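A student in our group prepared the protein record below, which I am reviewing. I have pasted the whole thing underneath without changing anything:
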Amino acid sequence: MSTFTKEIEYALNNGKYMLAVSLDCSGAFDCIKFDSAERCMKWKGIPDNITRWYVNLLKGRRVHAEVQGQATHIIPHRGSPQGGVLSPLIWNLIMDSLLTTFKGEPVQVLGYADDILLYVVGKSPAILANMMQNELKRVKEWGEVNGLTFNPSKTSMVLYTRSRRRIDVKVKMGGVPLQQENSLKYLGVEIQRNLSWTKHIKERTNKCKFLLGKCRSLVSKRWGLTPKKMEWIYKAVIRPKVAYGAVVWAHRITKGIERDLTRVQRLAMLTITQPLRSTPTAGMEAMLGWIPLSTHVQEMGMNTYLRIKELVQAGWDGIGHHTTIVGHLGVWKAVEEQCVGVLYPRGKRISEQIWTAASETEPEHRLEYPIMMYTDASKEGANVGYSWLASIGEYVIEENITPAKDISVFKAEMLAIGESLKWLQKNMDPMRRNIILSDSKSVVEKLNGHLAQDEMTRNIMVALRDLNARTPTEVIWIKGHSGIVGNELAALLAKEGAAQADKLLDTKPHMPVSRKEIKRKIHDHYMKAWQIKWESLVDCRISKQFYPLVREDKRIVKMSQKDLQLLTQTVTGHGLYKYHLGHWIELPDDDSCSLCQEGQEDTWHLWEWCPRLRKDRKVIRCLMEKGLAYEHGLLKMMRLKAVESLRARNETLLAS
């Protein structure tokens, strides 16, 4: 999808047209010929015995079916087994025979499972139509050879252009004219002819609002799904449906798209909190800790870009050099450089099995005391320190401290073990065993396994294997801060290293940055964007006072429906208080507090300033200092008899 969108962006940004045809393959898995599967398996160099075995499986199948007592038995003459483990692989081999025929051709083809997409870029729509017509004949011939047919009535054709004027082109398939449309749905994403995403977002948000409407019928004030379960439904089902394909469209969120996305999230929050209809969306987001949906889909688009950026290549301008990457890839690349920096090395994923080889020779008289290597790591903010110390018996013979920045504790622990192995290789004593002790269980399990998935782990496991081949060496987990002297000393050294990290002149990491660390930096970037957006809002005055800083919080939805409803009214100020009611009805007097007559009657005044509640406020603050959660303190204040009687009077005033 990203490749196709990139090609459209390239064409439109260079004043060209793109003609795209999405083919509908009828019964793909059910119609392939047996000899096509055999031919493609031989073409890809699959061993003959495996090829013969699979072809025999296809030809020797017997299908039995029974419906209402009527049984039938048939021998299939084409198709691969539905649900077969190898069926998708064989289909991919057959599809690859089509994809390779278009290499180097003006008309390009993209394939994903049974979705086939042809496209061609140029300056003349008529010439593009002729080129597409010729290639469709080739595709039809390929389908006949492999037993596949294409349905012209379900085939979509779109001419992508910046022009507002519709330009008609005529292309036929099997003698049937293809219908030219204004948008094309590819892999579930609706791409309009001017590369607008409004239609796609409308369809997605409407479906999600329909699903949320169904969920709302399962929620009531006294029964139904709990707020926690509703949040799970929203975050695990609804939100991913909206964010699907965000890598190609989230960089172009207009005000209209942002408004549609906000409505979806607002509907979910209204279902969970059951507040007054006038409650501001931004205030509920700050209280629940839900990042705005428009910001969330941008983060999801950025994370998708990180996964696929090495697979989607830059286009070629036909002159001799690569064009500058524009469009969605260029936007995500700029965000990546802003979040992570261009100097950060990226770690590559590998998969390599490394088995530890024990020493074949055992000395006659091994020394009693082994070399004990204690390692540890410490992190304070972005500052990291890792250390190791070597001891024999009660004596420390060597120690090392290394400060670093912007790496995880896990990686720092791995680095500490790697540095200790280097020291052991230089100072190896064949008469002593080597024992490396770490209080990081995940690191020990990683190194004692046999699968290396990154270069750093592989290098450490290889060093451990080589050292173990010369003298017995093992990595053991110990419980941290359990009174083991060596571990406590290593922890102190690691903290000292973290304190020295501020003095580093070069803050560039000296090792590949993990994908997890990059994703954390990207998440922090979008959390900062949410904070800036929150601070720039003109409204939500009361919510900003309760929550000046936005954050993600999983505790709020664990409350009951009744508590969450009252908390929402408290945090947003949209409840039975004079300041809010004054916007809807004419008050008999001013909006001053009914308890003290000294300020506006709103929730922040009651929580922070009202003299009448001074003693209760002091008691609640003392409870909060002893561990009472902030939100529960707010609820305790709003459930005081004086405050409840105030709301009751205002409810009577509203009813009258």
In short: The CA atoms of residues 60 and 212 lie 49 Å apart. The first strand starts at residue 17 and ends at 26.
